[in-house]
Design a protein that fits this description.
By secondary structure, the chain is of the alpha/beta class. The protein folds into 3 domains: 146 residues, NAD(P)-binding Rossmann-like Domain (Rossmann fold); 177 residues, Rossmann fold (3-Layer(aba) Sandwich); 84 residues, 2-Layer Sandwich (Alpha-Beta Plaits). Helices cover 31% and strands 21% of the residues. The chain contains 13 helices and 18 strands. The strands form 4 sheets. A 7-stranded parallel β-sheet has the order 10-9-8-11-12-13-14, with helices on both faces. It has a 5-stranded parallel β-sheet with strand order 4-3-5-6-7. A 4-stranded antiparallel β-sheet has the order 16-17-15-18, with helices on one face. Strand 12, helix 10 and strand 13 form a beta-alpha-beta unit. Helix 1 packs parallel to helix 11 and helix 5 packs across helix 7. The longest helix has 21 residues. It starts with a strand and ends in a 5-residue tail after the last strand.
Amino acid sequence: MAEESKSDDIATSFPKSKINILLMEKISQRAVDYFVEQGFHVETADKFTIEELQKKLPEIHVIGVRSKTKLRKDLLTKYAKKLLCIGCFCIGTDQTDLDCAASLGIPVFNSPFANTRSVAELVISNMIALARKVGDQNKWMHQGLWKKTAVQCYEVRGKTLGIVGYGHVGSQLSVLAEAMGLIVKFYDIVPKLPLGNARSVSSLDQLLAESDFISLHVPYTKLTDCMIDEEQILKMKKGSYLCNAARGKCVNTKAVAKYLKSGHLAGAYFDVYPSEPTNDTMCLCNCPNTILTPHIGGSTQEAQSNIGVDVASKIVKFINEGATIACVNFPEVTLEPNAKVHRILNVHRNVPGVLKKINEILCEFNVSAQVLKTNPELGYLLVEVDANPKFSKEVKTKMDALDETIRTRVLYAPGC
């Protein structure tokens, strides 16, 4: 059976109306609308208990999550029997076991860039607030206290901002900061082209020593785990400020609290914490000139809308065409849509000889296109063969029977 897509003339081998998409945690309505317009069946939910998710997941083909819904190994291996792909409607993918998903033939898509502006604006606004002690002044005013002062309150113009990680958010912050009159320096382990008058430095220690403000914009990896600890804080200028809107485990919050109270740090802004929600924030509570927000970096209507469409479009392209471009746990492969052929999608273990076995199955058909990409564990193959009356479910059955095959799917299969 095949059903025509509402967006184009491509026919897929499985009716879209029978593909069940579950979107969790109030994912943007734009994502919901996008899937519905494409003809998919969409269900939304704020949150499920683990037991409710275990009951629901076996009938789901696509699940969309944000940060709270945890897709761990036990859940995926036992209950994700029909799951085609996962959408993380956010920057991070910490909530999903990427290796386990890949081993099951399930690609994972996220949106690493759609909330760039929202995070950069939030950081620059809080840098200004820290320089003027706005957080403490706001608290005192709510307590009925009038503490007007210019002591240790500064303009940001002429100060030096040190950006750790000059990716999409870091470079966007660089542009905003320079427009505010700050001197911008950055450190990144990968060489990056500076924007405007920003300048790279050769080490993190140099950046810490030369900056009035330090702002982190790095992913969480083994290299960035607790990268700002007591040792690094002591290398910062006395009276400098620390901002973290990246990943909570990149900073030792207890050490930050210690040096806020001692006066070595003049202030801090945190949007992320070692675990969420948590008591890890408590050591930062009531520290002088410290602004805390509950991971709202990407929580703007614009960012959530952009993320919704970005991830949804990647998922639809995978379902309709098998494309894995911008996938975070899979080899990236794509082919232009072609409704006149049979397109075979095969995920397999990356071992010698598997391609030969697959081609032996296809040897009686005319292969018009073939794209293979591998990583150390997986191979992902897109093959197109000319439409042929002999083509049947037996081809998929034979490919699935290979010891190396993890999953096979067939698209654009007229007559099947």
